[in-house]
Specification:
binds ligand C2E, five-stranded parallel sheet, 758 residues, Rossmann fold, Alpha-Beta Plaits, disordered C terminus, binds magnesium ion, Beta-Lactamase, eight-stranded mixed barrel, alpha/beta
């Protein structure tokens, strides 16, 4: 493989020698270049490297050995073959030539065929070595490229958040793992490469082998699967594994991509916790409670067991929240929940259904008795005082109980019935338990019907006001009226307040109805004021919830303004309990109302627990002795004493006293005798609709006989009994206002008559 255009550099200081060699080589097709000295040769080689150098040994300046050494020591020229020309046919010269690194030598005078042979061989050698060099540099480049590629791949593998682990099926050992895998499992790469999948998991090798074979056969389920992995420190954690089989070099490799899902699992369980457990107490919430009950009922059905559902509501919990704050309320609920959990067995369920409502699911064989035992246990458990932030408090609970299958097999109905029974326990005076009965359901349904009808009653304007006069005890004149709510329920006639006011109060509907009452009473005042009747003071009953949930002040302001009436004509009747419920807010509202001139009186006084002195904190001007004392005032010494004390104390505190429910002349006489300021009751008049009251206000003579008959008779008898005489005269409307003074008494004389200085 002689290169025909091979370039040969001839280096000789003698011109004839150079010419001779050129003459010998050129005809053979070689290209020749010449140099007359070592330095010239080096320069020529540097500019265009030849394929072969024929180098004379003996040259002035740099000799052949030196030139050869320089060329052979330089990597860029080392592979150019050199044939040394030596005239010295002796061993030493040849050895020196070989020593300087040349490939071959020729002795002068040069034999032509030997020259050709040597030149041809050298060039062949050269081209072979060139080829080898080229090949190795190609290979080297390829290796470099592959190394870089592998490096890139490794870096990419190490950069992923997922662990990548390649397993050789035949050995069941890892053959490649990335940095994440090392971190995830807590081993070095070297350690992992000596291990197999079973060592980093909680499962045996055989299972992996089976799984890998299934993956290779394409039988394994597609998509990631969740497994437990084992860390080098022995801890176990959840992972998600995606797996693929790869056929490479006649071998099966399993590529496992493993993702740590510890955080995801935590988040999932947190979500589950939030969705199913109450965050305050950690108890199952309503959703989970229902689920559990459904399951309990199903398993009880199989075993022939009973399931007892208890609905527990704390008594007066709202007071704790209102007076001590929500923080204390929350702490109390947590402590209560702890105590409830202590009362049941491990397999029973305690749930929190919301607010202060808890519920239990108890599986048992001997149902009513077992339920009674647990209910008693709960009472005992709650009996010990709770201590929260140095506040010591006691709590009682009302409990409703239903039993599967006796009461129902529907979980929702069981809870509803337990709720109904709890409600009955509350109504019966709290701190007790009640088993659900069918009658309760009938009551509950009736109540629901009533509630629905009441909601409609507001929209359909089915409420009306009746008015009952209050009279001055001394003069017998009408002092004002009390507005009393009636419900003209379609198909039922007139419904009295005790049938529906409690429902309005419990449902909160009282807030809307209450503001309607204020508006309607003020409208009535306004209308009368603009007729010859003139100004009439009306008192309106106000429920506690109106303070808390409504805008009492706003209602009053709006009603006074809309009808353009003086505030002094409106009186609000409050009960002691509604005053106590929200002291601060109530006091502020009342103060701002009284500053406008609105009168405040305490209704049903004597039934609450408040002392008169305590009530003085509120801007009150009047007390109403409860009907319960009045009705026994002449027959029961205790009640009479209470009434008397109230009157005396009220007067000491400069409060007016009114007695309600006065039905007999005896009662009237007694109250007058003890200086009660005002009287209200059937004895004078029942509550009447507007028309009736107007007649009463205008002229007693025109009162219809049905209303007049009874009170007048009683009145007459009473007057005789009390005073031994019955001096009948006109009872006059006494409003204590300038307008009333100017009115002629004959216009508005009333029957039955009461005299001023009786
Ligand atoms: P209250 O405010 O103590 O009203 C007095 C109740 O005693 C009235 O019953 C009245 O009809 C009745 N009464 C008056 N004189 C006699 C009597 O001589 N003998 C007897 N046995 N009873 C007499 P009513 O109208 O059935 O009202 C009952 C309760 O309903 C009221 O008691 C009051 O607490 C409530 N109520 C009535 N109207 C309203 C209202 O508009 N708003 C609110 N929040 N409650 C109201
Ligand atoms: Mg009242
Ligand atoms: Mg009352």
């Amino acid at each position: 493989m002689i290169h025909s255009a091979a370039t040969i550099l001839i280096v000789d200081d003698e011109f004839q020698n150079r010419k001779l060699l050129e003459a010998l080589l050129q005809p053979e097709g070689y290209r020749t270049v010449t140099a007359a000295s070592g330095a010239e040769a080096l320069a020529a080689i540097a500019s265009t490297p030849p394929d072969l150098v024929i180098l004379d040994v003996m040259m002035p300046g740099m000799n052949g050995y030196e030139v050869a050494k320089l060329l052979k020591n330089d990597v860029s020229t080392a592979n150019i073959p050199i044939i040394m020309l030596t005239a010295l046919d002796e061993r030493g010269a040849r050895l020196a030539a070989l020593d300087s690194g040349v490939e071959d030598f020729l002795t002068k005078p040069v034999d032509r065929s030997e020259l050709w042979l040597r030149v041809r061989n050298m060039l062949r050698l050269k081209s072979l070595s060139d080829f080898l060099r080229d090949q190795s540099s190609i290979l080297e480049r390829k290796v470099q490229e592959r190394t870089a590629e592998l490096q890139r791949f490794r870096t990419a593998m190490d950069c992923t958040a997922d662990a990548i682990m390649l397993v050789r099926r035949s050995t069941m050992l890892f053959i490649e793992v990335n940095g994440t895998a090392c971190e995830l499992f807590g081993y070095t790469r070297e350690q992992l490469l000596k291990m197999g999948p079973a060592q980093i998991s909680a499962r045996p090798l055989l299972e992996f082998e089976t799984l890998y074979d299934a993956t290779i056969d394409g039988r394994a389920p597609k998509g990631p699967i969740e497994k437990l992995a084992r860390h080098g420190d022995g801890s176990v954690f959840p992972v998600e594994v995606s797996r693929q089989a790869l056929h490479s070099n006649g071998e099966w490799i399993l590529v496992n991509v493993i993702r740590n899902i510890t955080d995801r699992k935590k988040a999932e369980s947190r979500l589950k916790q939030l969705a199913h457990y109450d965050s305050l107490t950690g108890l199952p919430n309503r959703t989970l409670f229902f689920d559990t009950l459904r399951k309990s009922v199903a398993s009880a059905a199989e075993r022939g067991w009973h399931v007892v559902v208890m609905f527990i509501d704390l008594d007066n919990f709202k007071n704790v929240n209102d007076t001590l704050g929500h923080g204390v309320g929350d702490a109390l609920l947590t402590q209560v929940s702890d105590r409830l959990v202590q009362c049941v067995r491990l397999r029973d369920t305690v749930g929190r259904l919301g607010g202060d409502e808890f519920a239990l699911i108890l599986g048992m064989q001997d149902a009513p008795r077992g339920a009674e035992i647990v209910a008693a246990k709960i009472r005992v458990a709650l009996r010990a005082p709770f201590v929260i932030n140095e506040n010591e408090m006691t709590v009682t609970a009302s409990i409703g109980i239903t039993i599967y299958p006796e009461d129902s097999s529907d979980p929702e109905a069981l809870i509803r019935f337990a709720d109904t029974a709890m409600y009955k326990a509350k109504q019966a005076g709290r701190n007790m338990y009640r088993f659900f009965t069918a009658q309760m359901n009938i009551d509950a349904v009736a109540r629901l019907v009533l509630e629905t009808a009441l909601r409609k009653a507001i929209e359909n304007e089915e409420f009306v006001l009746y008015y009952q006069p209050k009279v001055h005890a001394s003069t017998g004149r009408i002092a004002g009226l009390e507005a009393l709510l009636r419900w003209d329920r379609p198909g039922h006639g007139l419904v009295s307040p005790d049938k529906f006011i409690p429902v309005l109060e419990e449902t909160g509907l009282i807030v809307r109805v209450g503001s309607w009452v204020i508006a309607a009473a003020c409208k009535q005042i306004g209308e009368w004021m603009r007729t010859s009747i003139g100004p009439v003071q009306i008192s309106v009953n106000v429920a506690g919830r109106q303070f808390v949930e409504g805008d009492l002040e706003g209602d009053v302001d709006a009603a006074l303004a809309a009808n353009d009436i003086p505030a002094s004509l409106l009186e609000l009747e409050l009960t002691e309990s509604s005053l106590m419920a929200n002291t601060e807010r109530t006091t502020n509202t009342l103060k701002s109302l009284t500053s406008r001139g609105v009168q405040i009186s305490i209704d049903d006084f004597g039934t609450g627990y408040s002392s008169l002195a305590y009530l003085r904190r509120f801007p009150i001007s009047k007390l109403k002795i409860d009907i319960a004392f009045v009705c026994n005032i002449t027959t029961n010494a205790d009640d009479a004493a209470i009434a008397l004390t109230i009157i005396r104390m009220a007067h000491t505190l400069k409060l007016e006293v009114i007695a309600e429910g006065v039905e007999t002349a005896e009662q009237l006489a007694y109250l007058r005798h003890h200086r009660c300021d005002q009287i209200q009751g059937f004895y004078f008049s029942r509550p009447l609709p507007v028309a009736g009251i107007e007649t009463l206000l205008y002229d007693g003579k025109s009162l219809p006989p049905s209303r007049q008959a009874e009170p007048r008779m009683t009145m007459d008898d009473g007057l005789k009994t009390a005073e031994g005489s019955a001096e009948l005269g006109n009872a006059c409307l006494d409003l204590g206002t300038e307008q009333s003074e100017s009115r002629s008494t004959s216009d508005i004389s009333l029957r039955p008559p009461l005299q001023r200085d009786f």
